[in-house]
Amino acid sequence: MAKMMYREAVLSTIAEEMARDPSVVVLGEDVVGGMGTAGGPEAIGGIWSTSTGLFGQYGAERVIDTPISESAIIGAASGLALAGKRPIAELMFADFIGVCLDQIWNQMGKFRYMFGGKSRCPAVIRMAYGAGYNAAAQHSQSVHQILTGMPGLKVVMPSCPADVKGLLRTAIRDDDPVIFLEHKALYAMKGEVPDDPDFTIPFGHARLTRAGQDVTIVASGLLLGFAEAAADKLAKDGIGCDVIDLRTTSPLDEESILDSVEVTGRLLVVDEAPPRCGLAADICALVANKAFASLKAPPAACTPPHSPIPFARELETAYLPSADKIETAVRKLMAWR
Amino acid sequence: MQLSREALLRAYRQMKVIREFEERLHVEIQTGEIAGFTHLYCGQEAVAVGVCEHLSAADKIISTHRGHGHCLAKGCDVDDMMKEIWGSREGLCKGKGGSMHIADVNVGMLGANGIVGAGAPIAVGAALALKLDGPDEAGLHVSLAFSGDGACNQGTTFEAMNLAVVTKAPVIFVFENNHYSEHTGVDYAVGTAKDIASRAEAFGMKVWRADGIDFFSVHDTMREVLEYVRAGNGPAAVEYDTERFFGHFEGDPQRYRGPGELDRIRETRDCLKQFRKSVTAAKLLTDADLDALDTEVLEAIEAAVTAARAAERPTADDVTVDVYINY
Questions:
Q1: Fold of the domain spanning B5-309
Q2: How many CB atoms lie within 10 A of CB B5?
Q3: Domain range annotation of chain B
Q4: CA–CA distance, A101 with A109 (Å, rounded to integer)
Q5: How far apart are CA A293 and CA A290, in angstroms?
Q6: What strands, in cross-sheet order, belong to the sheet with A63-66?
Q7: Are the beta carbons of B125 and A106 separated by less than 8 Å?
Q8: Which CATH number fits domain A2-193: 3.40.50.970, 3.40.50.2300, 2.40.50.140, 3.20.20.140?
Q9: Given an 8 Å threshold on Cβ–Cβ distance, is A87 in contact with B104?
Q10: Which element (helix H / strand E) includes B9?
């Protein structure tokens, strides 16, 4: 085991897979950084420090620094994948899917189906997502609710460095297009990461991080830590929570959720995306449909309101779910009759 | 460069296959037997064939929503395409794609595309893969993005051209100007003096322009373009002036056409007639040679329709097959 940051787990996994497989290529805005400047290539090395040093090692043909052209980046990733490569495209901010959604949704995600199962599109699109930096409405969003609803895409949301390592390696080696969502507020998180060069975590397998008999809390990404903090506090008052880290929202580990709710009878889904037509509503519906007889209270959600993400510190704090809000929601479930 | 008799016969046959494929669809669509939206390539055959006759299966193309001609010219099987348009599970895409999404990656055909302008960035990506693979004895393999005077106005096309120049990708932007983007004239919708190639030029690419009705003009320019791009000089673009014999989609009343326009272009701007005139006048081929091919192609199209009608239909169980490789 080695201790490393979430962002270091991203970079080291990419570097290891590039060394292992010559078909792995990286592309995106400023993934080299400094091209065409007095400072020269790698003057920056990627704004998230998730591609530092790759250009020096692998050169311009495998580390492709692109203009600010998100549609072209994602389209090029598709073309690279259809032509036999394993591209890892970086969208600097997940919010930018707005300018390239056609290439993700109508193109990459549908090729295999539209082409009768004859093509492979093994592309990974990495995106930095999430709030917490007062970056306001266009640089803070959680976009998994949009992408999870798109057949043909897989959607991954790691919550810790070890999961970054195992899930990103699975994503790069996977033959389908994968959206890999990295939470900005987790990039500096440190954790133990297995050294095994073939350590992978399969998609569609959630992780139980706290065990309890009373309430099932489903979370992912940054909010997993909030859910764990709430669960730890509630445990002191004798309220036991299962905390389930989804790891991937597509595929969804329905079985782990349903198995837990059958024991607890209470569900709280914690999500960073707005509530309408989202992941929380989806999982509440799943439980209502498939675990109805087990329920002791209506399935509940703890999400931001139906609102864009505000700028001011007080407003962003009010907008986001927190450990306190999760605790309150759990206590409300326990009090329901 | 003079083409061999064999190459001339093959080129004519390829164009004729596209022509008769489309003419037959135009008839069959009106019976209601074929579902969905269909956009016919009829009139533009010299472009697809003049370009694709130079390519190998290792070269890639991306097509448009008007893609049947590019598919056939790149080597997609006629019977399998007809079955796909009929929606059969024996079709080239198992009945999942239909007219607008025909693809066959095995022949380097990376897809017709229902989204106008979506193909150009994908072609750049394929070109970057081919560049990474490096040249063989014939030079680099290349990727081509077919686009029309409609797609040339999409931001994706601009982004793709710039990215191609920045990365020196071996990609060729083939603009087929048939004077209509859907139901709107090029005089209105393309601002740069009606010339699409000048846009590519402004992005820093070497460009060519030629008459897309003249197979030989297309074929000769594409030879030059390919020599340039295969040598590793980066991307290039070519604009072909051509004609669309049918509407934007099948069922389009075409009220935007001028009086007698369709008859005039069929009479004076038909690439097959022009080919026949050139090769017989130069005594390279005879009318009898070409008539024999006409008969053979009509029989092949008839056989393809018969096979498509008889082909196995998909079932409800097929709906969720091939969404993922593993899920």
A1: Rossmann fold (3.40.50)
A2: 11
A3: 5-309
A4: 10
A5: 8
A6: A63-66, A24-29, A86-91, A124-129, A178-183, A154-156, A248-250
A7: no
A8: 3.40.50.970
A9: no
A10: helix B5-29
Helix (H) or strand (E) holding A260: helix A254-264
What type of residue is B216?
F
- In three-state form (DSSP H/G/I as H, E/B as E, the rest C), the secondary structure along B42-78 is CCCHHHHHHHHCCCCCCCEEECCCCCHHHHHHHCCCH
C-alpha to C-alpha distance for A196 and A37, rounded to whole angstroms:
39
Is A173 in the B-facing interface, judged by CB distances under 8 Å?
Answer: no
Structure tokens at A106: 């109508």
The Cα–Cα gap between B222 and B236 comes to 10
**Which CATH architecture group holds A207-335?**
3-Layer(aba) Sandwich (3.40)
Selected residue of A101, A104, A113 to mutate for chain B interface (largest B Cβ count, 10 A): A113
Instruction: Report d(CA B290, CA B287) in Å as an integer.
Output: 5
Is A36 in the B-facing interface, judged by CB distances under 8 Å? no
Whole-angstrom distance, CA of residue B241 vs CA of residue A289: 59
Q: Mean pLDDT for each 10-residue chunk of chain A (337 residues)? A: 97 98 98 94 90 96 97 98 98 97 98 97 98 96 97 98 98 98 98 97 98 98 98 98 98 98 98 97 98 98 98 97 98 95
- Cα A94 to its chain centre, rounded Å, is 10
Residues 6+ apart with CB under 8 A from A2: A192, A193, A195
Q: How far is B175 from A331, CA to CA, in rounded Å?
A: 64
Q: How many CB pairs under 8 A join A and B?
A: 163
Domain locations in chain A as residue ranges = 2-193, 207-335
Scanning the structure block, which residue is given the tokens 């209506």? A298
pLDDT digits (tens, 9 = 90+) for B179-222: 999 999 999 999 887 699 999 999 999 999 999 999 999 999 99
Other Cβ atoms closer than 10 A to A38:
6
